[in-house]
Amino acid sequence: MDPLTHLSSGLMGGLAARRWFPEAKFLVPACLFAAWMPDMDIFFGDGPEFNLLYHRGVSTSFFGTFFLALALAGLYKLVSRRTPFVRAAALFYALALTHVWLDLITTYGTQLLAPFSNHRFALDGAFIIDPVFTLTTLALILAAWLIKKHRHAIALTGMAWFFLYPLANMGMGAVLQNVYAHRLDAEGVAYEHVHVTPDALSPRFWKVVVTAGPDYLLDTMDLFGDREPAAPLRVRRADKTFLRKLGEQQSMFATYAWFTKWPYVEETDTPEGRRLVFHDLRFTSTNPVMAWYYRGKQPPFTLTAQLDKSGRLTAWSYEGGVRTQDNNGDGGFRTGIEEKLQ
């Protein structure tokens, strides 16, 4: 989830907890930090592969957030000596777990059991940036701040909102999944599975991913109604075994096989051999807003391989989700890295 929503959960939590910590000093700033601190892993990244492997890893797991909460409570005790350590640690752990929840409800997911397991858990409760979710949260914070008489009750309602809204979206997604499956049945389209998840500007737009033999079908459901519904986008599913095989030459490909949920590939012949461009449907959309935003651009988390005629990897490049400084000397920016193999 975006940093603003994470910080909002800390501010809301601090306002809600104020009644239970009347002696606490600087409680709200401490709660803000507690709600953000699982994202500290962004300061320890060492390239795109490291970020894929470890961002939303141990610092956003049940275990990592527990030790972070203990450390923060120990530091907070130096500032607010009258606040019991155990109570402060419990509050900070609850807020850190709220951060974990807000990451869990996006399709990017998080490694809940790290460092004991690198399995990435993900629910379909919200798009990574959700204006309805965030603006409602900010409105509740403003109300709690202005209406002091009912601040505690409003803030508790706000904390409940962080859980009720995603759960409602999950229920809606399950309903839409059945609706879309019935539509495919009526049209006689063969498929194995239908998956519906919130897309940009949800709850209006919803992403539909259909597993259909060697392909994926990508579609958008518009709850306001499709005036001219287009045919779903059909893409070829990528073979994760093949990605892992490429990973024997360059580990990034094995990492990508582990990271992706719905990988697909675009293949073109070149004079040297083949060019393979791998994407993940989690980060591709036919939503009109996202289609406009990425027009003429590669979607994030794109991995490209150049193979020679014998199938050996000769060069690769990666477009990540974070813009990085280019080394071309002109002050421009690019995303990701490029590498030629000898």
UniProtKB/TrEMBL annotation:
The chain crosses the membrane at residues 58-79, 91-114, 126-147, 154-176. Coiled coil: none annotated. Keywords: Hydrolase, Membrane, Transmembrane, Transmembrane helix. It holds the Pfam family YdjM. GO terms for molecular function: hydrolase activity. It comes from the Bacteria. The keyword Transmembrane applies. This is Metal-dependent hydrolase. It comes from Pseudodesulfovibrio karagichevae.
